[in-house]
Backbone:
């Protein structure tokens, strides 16, 4: 069968889609990938066998009235484009992983009576998945949602195989190793506040910090100012190696990050992005707190409370409690989704 997989613009959407697509191929299905043409999509699927279609599309939420009108018109036009692609490629079903491009894809499949499935990576249903969930056959979700959704099944987040290896537990007599990341773009709050927050435990820690493009010099200077031994890089190509190296992670609470870290038996100090749509990063962080694999710090709590939380984690070795756990929900997520989709289609 031919399965259309659709996701757009962010790694949190794209990497789970690729994981499921590759799993579909292992059981003989052909995968057609539809995205928005963003460079992260093109780069990410370069080493796959997927046939790729780029449908330029901008999101709807947070836009001006004029841009919302343009987005609606573009969606309608793209539905007709996608109907033609689905017919020519003889698509049998689709799985949408988020990003606004999945809306016209899903509607086109619905018009042609092709089964639609969705996967939501966060603890709050995204706008695209919220629309598609109304006629989706199965809504796969990574975590329990803050609101009930019909036909939903918790399956975790499909993660890349490099994050599935059980890491070696570290010896307790070594310095505490901390991996700090604000994502590929870097997070200004994390970059500016974490070095100072580590000051009281500077002789007890080793740090590796991903700061985002063009920010390395300034962040390195901050660590040197506080006498903290730190390696600072714009970007790390293999974050799984950093997770395995560390005792715990300081980061935002994006769905894919917390899934990858917790799958490798590492916990997190999470600083949710306060402007995240529907505050989904807060709910992601609450989920990790509930399974005892991390704690949350909200920006409005202030720098002094952040420093105290980090100091307590290091001095009390709280990370050892987190490391004794493992979030196994994500390890077989891709195969679980594929099995259930395959069973439905047969």
Residues:
């Amino acid at each position: 069968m031919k399965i259309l997989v659709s996701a757009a613009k962010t790694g949190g959407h794209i990497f789970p889609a690729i994981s499921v697509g590759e799993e579909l191929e292992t059981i003989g299905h052909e995968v057609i990938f539809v995205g928005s043409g963003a460079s992260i999509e093109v780069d990410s699927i370069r080493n796959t066998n997927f046939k790729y279609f780029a449908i330029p599309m901008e999101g709807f939420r947070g836009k001006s009235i004029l841009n919302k009108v343009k987005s609606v018109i573009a969606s309608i036009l793209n539905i007709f484009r996608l109907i033609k692609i689905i017919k020519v490629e003889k698509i049998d079903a689709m799985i949408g992983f988020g990003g606004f491009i999945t809306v016209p894809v899903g509607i086109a499949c619905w018009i042609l009576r092709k089964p639609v499935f969705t996967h939501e990576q966060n603890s709050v249903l995204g706008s695209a998945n919220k629309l598609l969930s109304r006629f989706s056959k199965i809504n796969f979700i990574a975590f329990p949602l803050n609101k009930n959704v019909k036909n939903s099944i918790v399956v975790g987040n499909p993660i890349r195989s490099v994050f599935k290896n059980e890491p070696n537990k570290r010896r307790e007599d070594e310095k505490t190793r901390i991996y700090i990341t604000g994502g590929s773009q870097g997070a200004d709050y994390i970059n500016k506040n974490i070095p100072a927050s580590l000051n009281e435990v500077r002789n007890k820690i080793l740090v590796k910090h991903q700061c985002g493009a063009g920010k390395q010099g300034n962040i390195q200077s901050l660590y040197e100012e506080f006498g903290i031994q730190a390696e600072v890089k714009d970007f790390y190509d293999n974050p799984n190696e950093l997770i395995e190296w560390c005792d715990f992670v300081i980061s935002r609470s994006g769905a894919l990050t917390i899934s990858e870290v917790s799958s490798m038996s590492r916990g997190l100090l999470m600083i949710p992005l306060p402007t995240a749509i529907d505050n989904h990063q807060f709910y992601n962080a609450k989920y990790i707190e509930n399974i005892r694999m991390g704690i949350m710090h909200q920006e409005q709590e202030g720098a002094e409370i952040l420093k105290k939380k980090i100091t307590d984690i290091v001095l009390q070795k709280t990370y050892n409690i987190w490391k004794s756990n493992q979030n196994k929900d994500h390890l077989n997520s891709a195969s679980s989704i594929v099995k259930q989709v395959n069973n439905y289609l047969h």
Notes: Residues 65-89 form the longest helix (25 residues).
